Amino acid sequence: MQMSDAVGFSASTPTVWRPRHAEEAYRLKKQFGHDAAYVSGGTLLRTQWENGSPVPGHLIDLSSAAEWKEAGADNGTFAIGAQTTLSACRSDPQLQALYPLIVEASRSIAAPSIRNLATIGGNVSSGVGDSLPALLVYEAQLDWYDDGGERTESLEDWLRRMQDGTAQTDSLLLRVRLPLESANLDPSENLSENPSLTADPAHSFAYYAKIGRRDSFVPSAVTTALTGTIDGSGRLRRVRLAAGGGKTIPRRYPEAEARLEGKAADDRSVHLLHAILMASYTPAPDPFLSDEYRKRTAANVAASHLWRAISEFAHGKEGERCC
């Protein structure tokens, strides 16, 4: 472990620690408690300090840990090290092929200079990062290090604990895991467990959107993600829907997912999705935008995702008939 030389620095300058592994980093966080913060890119912390949040006395620098910057297949999942930058996520060819919404979400966050520093782990750990809806529809899992060593939990469960205030704040995020079965593979593979559903090819879809107060590098007002499949008989299968934005902790919408399962891919399903989100999306307070505006925006954008998927499926079927 290395520590920065604080001699000659002002009293407000934090001490920087550079641990060599997860156990050491976690031990430092436990030792200094609320007066310490994990840091890598530091973009979120810098924003918080500029807005008046106190600077901690100790920074635990994770940027030198090479094993937390790697991405690739691991034990039936695609693992992304928590210290992987958003720029690296955006340009990773495997992510582009398998999990395009992660790439799209990474592209939409801040300016390029920020994405070169900001990490996927920092975006997740904030609890409100714009990558979270995309990760939720891919059913992401999180690898943590804490008192019990390494452990894994679903992103959905962790966000639920963030919402109710029971999430452990000292835990160190090591990596994000994406199940390979949730990847953007041949849609016929999604139906392989029940081939009797259809003998025709299926149409898979995946959409992500970030809506801000203006078209620029600004914080989001609403973020949505939708994935699923339309089988050959025109029925919706395995729909996954998530929404967040601003200071709203993102979440999945299992009621919408369950009620859309097996429904005909038509206008009625679009209206059903819209109605459920209007009733269940609950945004955190925003000084610039009303709750009603953001509820309607989330419902409209998610419904437009599904309408687009249905339209593309219908056009594809027309092309098969005419050609």
Brief description of this entry?
The chain is α+β, with helices and mostly antiparallel strands and 323 residues long. Helix content is 38%, strand content 24%.
Percent in strands: 15-25%
**Classification by helices and strands:** alpha+beta
Biggest beta-sheet profile? 5 strands, antiparallel
Q: How many distinct beta strands? A: 13
Fraction of helical residues: 25-40%
The CATH superfamily of the largest domain appears as CO dehydrogenase flavoprotein, C-terminal domain
Which terms would index this structure?
5-stranded antiparallel beta sheet, 4-stranded mixed beta sheet, Uridine Diphospho-n-acetylenolpyruvylglucosamine Reductase, domain 2, Uridine Diphospho-n-acetylenolpyruvylglucosamine Reductase, domain 3, 323 residues, 3 domains, single chain, alpha+beta
Describe the structure.
By secondary structure, the protein is of the alpha+beta class. It has 3 domains: about 1-60, 2-Layer Sandwich (Uridine Diphospho-n-acetylenolpyruvylglucosamine Reductase, domain 2); about 65-180, Uridine Diphospho-n-acetylenolpyruvylglucosamine Reductase, domain 3; about 200-320, Enolase-like, domain 1, CATH 3.30.390. The chain is about 40% helix and about 25% strand. It is built from 13 helices and 13 strands. The chain has helices spanning about 20-30, 45-50, 85-90, 95-100, 100-110, 110-115, 120-125, 130-135, 155-165, 185-190, 255-260, 265-280, 290-320; strands at about 1-5, 15-20, 35-40, 60, 70-75, 75-80, 140-145, 150-155, 170-180, 205-210, 220-230, 235-245, 250. The strands form 3 sheets. The chain has a 5-stranded antiparallel sheet with strand order 5-6-9-7-8. The protein has a 4-stranded mixed sheet with strand order 1-2-4-3, with helices on one face. Helix 11 runs antiparallel to helix 12 (about 265-280) and helix 12 packs antiparallel against helix 13.
